[in-house]
């Protein structure tokens, strides 16, 4: 019996050791987030204030698109607040801000946007501040949309130029988890930035999609073989995560939504953005979980 134990015991010890080691590995996967809770967040929101929010051109009886935007923004601010509340006071050093491109001509809108640049750190973090962020964002962004709709002067959306000349400086900070949330219907157009380079462009409109012949069931084959897409931007944005919300294709092309998402996916991938999601326009109640999962990194 003693001889048998002497022979079997080393094997049992080895098995137990490997089992414990495997349990630890599994435990790490469950408890260690890719982005730990103590990480500092730098959240930017880019608003597309083009005529997609026009009540005259794009009415929606279920819920107007600007109201959906406000619901998305509410979810973003709630996720930001939840993140802050999960940290100890001394760990807090987080930011949230709001951008447009081009900037509206309205001084009122730009003034409100400036007020929505929030920095929370150990020196100013308080229960009152944390509890006020979501309501503050909701009321002030509502004023922005009200002003833009009342003004009724939609100058377009220059998202391509924002990525080309501004995103690196304005949305990415070293030592932060940088998240950019873009509220857009997926189209891009601005009179001052219309660049074409063969089959690539800095803009995307329903007319361009039709012109490129991407309105038939073999659109994907044509898209890939003829190298359609946005003009590549030579920026390494690997330290940026992007959530695109509100994709809203026109009704004349059943493939348009897939085409829009293909343009965006190819473009974001080319900029080395490894974590991104592109979501269609939906009611805020259906999008709330998507937004919070993305920001709070609950995979």
Walkthrough of the structure:
This protein is of the alpha/beta class. It has one domain: Rossmann fold. The protein is about 45% helix and about 15% strand. The chain contains ten helices and eleven strands. It has helices at about 1-30, 65-85, 105-115, 125-150, 160-165, 165-170, 205-210, 220-225, 255-270, 285-295, and strands spanning about 40-45, 95-100, 120, 155, 175-185, 190, 195, 200, 230, 240-245, 275-280. The strands form three sheets. Strands 3-2-1-5-10-11 form a six-stranded mixed β-sheet, sandwiched between helices. The chain has a three-stranded mixed β-sheet with strand order 7-8-9. A two-stranded antiparallel sheet has the order 4-6. A hairpin with a 2-residue loop joins strand 7 and strand 8. Helix 2 (about 65-85) runs antiparallel to helix 4. It starts with a helix and ends with a helix. It comes from Flavobacterium chungangense. This is VWFA domain-containing protein.
């Amino acid at each position: 019996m003693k001889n048998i134990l002497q022979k079997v015991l080393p094997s049992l010890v080895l098995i137990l050791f490997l089992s414990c080691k495997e349990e630890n590995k599994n435990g790490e996967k469950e408890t260690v987030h890719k982005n730990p809770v103590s990480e500092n967040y730098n959240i930017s929101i880019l608003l597309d204030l083009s005529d997609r929010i026009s009540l005259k051109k794009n009415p929606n009886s279920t819920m107007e698109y600007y109201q959906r935007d406000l619901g998305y923004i509410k979810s973003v601010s709630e996720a930001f607040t939840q993140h802050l509340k999960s940290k100890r006071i001394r760990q807090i050093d987080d930011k949230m801000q709001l951008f447009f491109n081009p900037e509206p001509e309205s001084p009122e809108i730009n003034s409100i946007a400036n007020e929505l640049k929030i920095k929370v750190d150990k020196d100013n973090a308080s229960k009152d501040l944390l509890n006020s962020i979501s309501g503050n964002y909701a009321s002030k962004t509502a004023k922005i949309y009200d002003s833009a709709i009342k003004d009724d002067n939609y100058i377009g959306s220059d998202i391509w130029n924002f990525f080309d000349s501004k995103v690196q400086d304005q949305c990415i900070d070293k030592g932060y988890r940088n998240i950019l949330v873009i509220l857009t219907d997926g189209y891009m157009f601005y009179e001052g930035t219309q660049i074409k380079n063969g089959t690539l462009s800095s803009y995307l409109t329903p007319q361009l999609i039709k012109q490129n012949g991407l309105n038939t069931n073999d659109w994907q084959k044509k898209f890939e073989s003829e190298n359609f897409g946005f003009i590549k931007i030579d920026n390494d944005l690997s330290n940026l995560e992007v959530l695109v919300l509100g994709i809203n294709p026109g009704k004349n092309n059943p493939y348009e939504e897939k085409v829009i998402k293909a343009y965006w996916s190819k473009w974001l991938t080319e900029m080395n953005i490894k974590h991104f999601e592109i979501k269609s326009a939906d009611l805020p109640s259906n999008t709330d979980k998507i937004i919070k999962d993305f920001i709070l990194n609950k995979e």
